[in-house]
Design a protein that fits this description.
By secondary structure, the protein is of the alpha/beta class. The protein is 38% helix and 18% strand. It has a 7-stranded parallel β-sheet, sandwiched between helices. The longest helix is centred in the first third of the chain and has 16 residues.
């Protein structure tokens, strides 16, 4: 019997010279990648820097497989921990949508406007979502606007779950993706 391989997508902020990734966010991201690989799952991300790179490094350090869905046609854009760079030429917005369509579940760490777009796409596509509390940015703000404390709107497409640690995020997602 073949074991189903789960594809976890990590979403969160990129890193820029004027906006470096805080150490605590790096550590949370690294741990998500590490635990994803230890579950035997494949880590998907936007494949570049920031949260994506830290999570990819964590997955690689745990012997996992990483896939980067890149916005350009240049596979050199991928961070050094990406095993499978998928070049799209779609730009950041459409690349994000492609990643959301591909994965089984999402973990959100920090983030800004682009991460909110990915969160909305995951919600609309009924993907299980775990948000890490205390990771800053959009992850710490979105809870204030949720309908009934767990939905983006009255459609109630999927419960948005909150975790206080990477370990808890994975634990929340396991029953949702293994028992579909």
């Amino acid at each position: 019997m073949n074991k189903e391989i789960i594809r976890l997508g990590v979403i969160g902020q990129s890193e820029r010279s004027w906006d470096p990734l805080p150490r605590e966010i790096y550590e949370i991201s690294y741990r998500i990648g590490y635990l994803t690989a230890k579950q035997g799952w494949i880590l998907f991300s936007g494949g570049r820097d920031g949260v994506m790179e830290a999570a990819s490094k964590g997955a690689k350090d745990a012997g996992g497989i990483t896939v980067g869905i890149l916005p350009s046609l240049d596979k050199k854009e991928a961070n050094e921990y990406i095993d499978i760079p998928i070049t799209t030429g779609l730009g950041i917005g459409m690349r994000s949508e492609l990643m959301i369509q591909t994965v089984d579940c999402i973990v959100m760490i920090g983030g800004k406007n682009g991460t909110l777009k990915e969160l909305s796409a995951a919600y609309m596509n009924k993907k299980p979502i775990a948000i890490i509390r205390g990771s800053g940015g959009a992850a710490d703000s979105v809870g204030k606007i949720l309908f009934e404390g767990k939905h983006l709107d009255e459609r109630r497409n999927v419960d948005i779950l909150f975790a206080d640690s990477p370990k808890e995020a994975i634990e929340l997602l396991v029953p949702l993706v293994l028992h579909k």
